[in-house]
Amino acid sequence: MIITYKVSPLLKIKLNWMTEITQVREKEYFVDEQRIGPYKLWHHQHKIEPIEGGVLMTDIVTYQPPFGLLGSLANHLFIRKQLQQIFEFRTRALEKKFGKFSA
Length: 103
Prior knowledge:
Elements lengths: L1 E6 L7 E11 L3 E8 L4 E11 L2 E11 L3 H31 L5
Antiparallel strand pairs: 1-2, 2-3, 3-4, 4-5
C-alpha cells in the first residue's frame, strides 16, 4: 500500500511525502517506510499488542534527517521535538476516541 501526504516540516513549506507499507504481520505489527519525502531515512514500525480491555500500540521509529551535519543540528534543535509533538497529538486523538489507557 502506498500512502501520499502533504507535510510542512519547516516554515510551512509544503512537501510531498510518500510512504509504503512494506511489512504486515496481522495482529502484531506493520511497517511504513518513506519512498519520497523530507527524511534521508524513515522506518516506522507500529507494534500492536492485545492487553486487557483493548490494544496497546507502540511506535518504533528510525529516521535520519537529510543534509548531513546541518540535518543533525536541525534534528537536535527542532525535528525530534516536532516528531514527539506529532505522536503526542495522535495519542490524545486516540484517547479521545477510544478512552485513556491505564496500567
